[in-house]
Amino acid sequence: MRILIISCFLFLPFMGYAQLTMEDFLQSALQSSAVKVFDTQDDFLDENPYKLSLIRGLEFRTESNQLDNDRQDYTVRLNPANPWEVKRNNEYFKNYQQLLQLDRQRELKEVMKIHYETIINWAYLNELKKLKKEEQEIIKTSIDILAAQKFSSYFDANDYADLKIEQIEKMVELEELTFGEDAQRSNIEALYPLAQNQTISWTLSELIPIEQIQYLVSSQPIFSRVGELAYRQKKIDLALSEWKLDKSNINIGYIKAQYQGYRIEQERKPWSIGIGIAIPITNPNKDNMTKRKLEIIEAENDLLVAKTEQQVGVEMVKKNLQNLSIRYNNLQNRLDSLNIPALASSLQKIEDSNPITMIKLRGSMIKSKSMAARIKKEIYLAYIDYLWYSELLQQQPFTNYLSAGLN
Q1: Which of 13, 50, 68, 274 is the S-S candidate for 93 at Cβ 3.0 to 4.6 Å?
Q2: What is the tens place of the pLDDT at every residue in 154-211?
Q3: Residue 266 is part of a domain; what is its CATH number?
């Protein structure tokens, strides 16, 4: 028992700092309250609480025939439900349930987009912090070199003062990034409470390569009939089924049975049966039917707008991705063409070369790397926008579109 207790204390710190994977964080979108409310509604409708009774109403009447207490009449009147109304009512709620399921997919798509963007922003902040720390080290090294050159011709008092001020500025910038990371972590924990006991180490380097994004975007269809378009089409179906329900919501008549006990003394049968059929001259729900027609027209227009927005949105995002990729590739090619090791070797061979020159070059490289990281972040965000328009984010089973293996 003592060994077990000691083991628990030894392993407890490690248990509390498990790695939060991107896949777990993305899967947590299904537990969002905005998504689960649709599941609750769907489960409720699965029990068919909307089914109408075959009997609309049952009445019991009694009246005194000719004000004679011995001539009391009794009547039972049954109003059957309109079979067309029962059918239309079932169709309406079936369409409504299907609309709920499509609306759930729309909401899930929005939540997934937020989760993806959160991963990208965290990875970008992580990259900036790393570069900012590297920049601080370069400034510190530059200050140390200048301090060592205080009595040589290489020493420049203005450069030394500027570096001291820049060192303070970089410390403040790093603190701001740390505060931003804390705020981002709070956001992650709000989206996924289990993240409170886990470490988060998402980096830009582990995300899907830019070249793979370009391939996926070029190979995916630019137009889809699922998602938003299916939701808009179902809105039309729902408005139409509601119009049909209003049209059939009329009283078709009644069936009644009447008992007149005094007829027994007259040697006549006391029971009589009556049937009434209602023939409406005009539909009493004409005003509601007009409203439904207007809703159908509006829903049809919304579908056309959604089609246009999807087509235009996909093309705009693809164009933006293309431009960002060109900028990123050009910047990477320029950085690679510098050939830093060869340049450093050349500088070292120059007899009068100042050692701080190479340090300044490294500092400039950090700025270029920061620019590359920012462009890379914009590419990933545009990539998620493309997946959003293509209705791929909410498809199940889930695919982690930010992983190289598309896990």
Answers
A1: 50
A2: 677 777 787 788 888 888 888 999 999 999 999 999 999 999 989 999 999 999 999 9
A3: 1.20.1600.10
Nearest to 379 by CA among 216, 233, 245: 216
pLDDT in the model for residue 150? 75
CB neighbour burial string for 79-99, b if at least 16 within 10 angstroms, e if fewer:
bbbbeebbebbbbbbbbbbbb
* pLDDT tens digits along 239-261: 999 999 998 888 888 888 888 87
pTM of the model: 0.83
Short-list 109, 37, 167, CA closest to 386? 109
Q: Determine how many CB atoms are found less than 10 A away from the CB of residue 399.
A: 16
pLDDT-derived band at 146 (thresholds 50, 70, 90) equals confident
What domain count does the chain have? 1
Are the C-beta atoms of 125 and 142 separated by less than 8 Å?
A: no
The reply to whether 18 falls in a domain is no
Within a domain: 360: yes
Write the CA distances from 145 to 170, 171, 343, 344, integer angstroms. Answer: 19, 20, 20, 17
Within-domain flag for 16? no
Q: Residue 344 burial (CB < 10 Å; 0-12/13-18/19+)?
A: middle
CA pair distance 361, 358, nearest whole angstrom: 5
Q: Are strands 271-277 and 72-80 parallel, antiparallel or unpaired?
A: unpaired
pLDDT of 194: 92
Biggest alpha carbon–alpha carbon distance for the chain: 140
Q: Which domain holds residue 339?
A: 26-194+204-390
Handedness of CA 353, 354, 359, 362 (dihedral sign): negative
Look up tokens 């705020």; give the residue. 183
Q: Is the distance from CB of 295 to CB of 242 less than 8 angstroms?
A: yes
DSSP 317-358: HHHHHHHHHHHHHHHHHHHHHH-HHHHHHHHHHSTT--HHHH
Single-letter code of the amino acid located at 75: T
Q: Is there a domain that residue 107 lies in? A: yes
